[in-house]
Amino acid sequence: MQQRLSLSRAARLVGVARGALQQKIQAGELRSFDGMVSVDDLMRAFPAAILEGDIGFERVARIREEAYGKRLREHLLPSSEILSQRLFEQSRELADLRSHLQRYHAMVVRLRERLREQEVAASDGPAATAQELGAFLDRELEAVLGQSETPNPIALMDDMLRVMSAHVVLHPSRHEFFVDGADTILDAALRSGLAVNYGCSNGNCGLCKARIVSGQVQKVHHHDYVLSEAEKRQGYTLLCSHTAVGDLVIEALESAEPADIPEQQIVAKVKTVQALGDELMLLHLQTPRTNRLRFLAGQNLTLSAGGASAQLPIASCPCDDRNLQFHVVRNADDVFAQRVFGSLKSGDPVTLFGPWGDFVLRPDSPRSILFAACDTGFAPIKSLLEHAMALELSERLYLYWFATRPTGHYLANLCRSWADALDNFTYVPIAAEAGDALELVSRLGADHADLSAFDIYLAGPDAFVRSAATALQERGFPETQLTAAIL
User: What's the rounded Cα separation, in Å, for the pair 394 and 377?
Assistant: First the structure.
């Protein structure tokens, strides 16, 4: 029986995004079976993944390093206890497989003996048939017992990576993610872009409890919340306090709309204040470990410090809910902006209220996405883009960044690095002295014959957004596929 892998695991093993596999499946270059691909088909589709020499420890190490490079706690392995339990589970599976193989071998040997008995007892016709079947079994047994088969490199890599990370499937959404290193299940889900329900993330509120359908978990952090005996019998556990021993299937609720996110008030601290240009600052805030911010990509927060306040779009991904970024423009009429450019320093407290707004991704849309930003409209677009990347969306992603001043593409290097790293992302910078939205819409129409095949996310100044939205509607673009944010 052929070994089959989930798309998430197969993508990790051959070093591509899950979307790349889905594109090959849609093009008929890779067969799938209920969302799974066989190891043999995977090797044919990605021949570069076939390794020479030994069993590919170097490639496994590189994959692991790349995965950990995206994590805050770099290069941390699972605890020795978790590693030993995962090795034990794999050893038990191997022993079970060997036991089954021995039973099948014994069954074939008994069948051969019965055929010999038939050869002696039967008449000429049946005896000839028995002799033919017996000869076939002899040849097959000799081939199986006398042949040394070359190990399948992808299958071996999968076995090794199962020791380093656990694969988790969420029900009912069927979303998948991996638990790496010392991550809790909650941390791993958030870093994969999934908006699972949680509250304090510290084991006190119980909002992150979920039912374990299959697999084993282990407690890694203390929690004060007490599960009832009925919940324990049903398999409930706290995602913020447990990690995965092996592969898991979990029933857990996810937030899909802004209404699912509660309003919060958190006192964060300034991590850094960094210039992105003469007229722009990157404000990096960090929340307490025990009181992280729940939000959806693209939403806003009200920030308050020293009596000054402002509502700003979050310019970072909810997959890192402690580290929040904001792009603050110099403005003589904005007291909060003056404080950011003046007295605000590392360690200062900033109170956060929110989140607000519905400029969020449509999680279940099958369409590719056009992101269009004007100047600092890039801030909420950046949040959406990073979230889409964390989710490994298979659809094409396009960023059109319209800048009305020479330093308007203030994070162009970041955008170019995304374009270099991702096969499904395209970056198009557009420079113009005036914020002419018609020029942007004309460019979109010239590059894409059928704009209705896309969802469009548009962010920037009021006049620019309204003008672009009107121009798109005049071209017949469906209003339901346009989401806009006015800064």
Answer: 24
- Choosing among 2.40.50.100, 1.10.10.10, 3.10.290.10, 2.40.30.10, the CATH entry for 261-356 is 2.40.30.10
Which residue in the block uniquely carries the two structure tokens 């309003």?
263
Spatial CA neighbour of 356 closest among 221, 421, 434, 263: 263
Predicted pLDDT at 51: 45
Please tell me the chain's helix, strand, coil percentages from 3-state DSSP, rounded to the nearest 5.
40, 25, 35
Its CATH architecture, for the domain 368-486, is: 3-Layer(aba) Sandwich (3.40)
Contact yes or no for 377/487 (Cβ under 8 A): yes
Q: What is the pLDDT of residues 45-76, one digit of tens each?
A: 877 655 443 434 444 444 444 443 444 344 45
Q: Residue 370 pLDDT > 80, yes or no?
A: yes
Confidence of residue 405 (pLDDT cuts 50, 70, 90): confident
Q: Which residue has the tokens 């109170």?
A: 351
Phi, psi of 402, deg, nearest 5:
-95, 120
How far is CA 155 from each of CA 51, 151, 163, rounded to the nearest angstrom? 11, 8, 13
As a whole number of angstroms, the distance between CA 429 and CA 11 comes to: 30
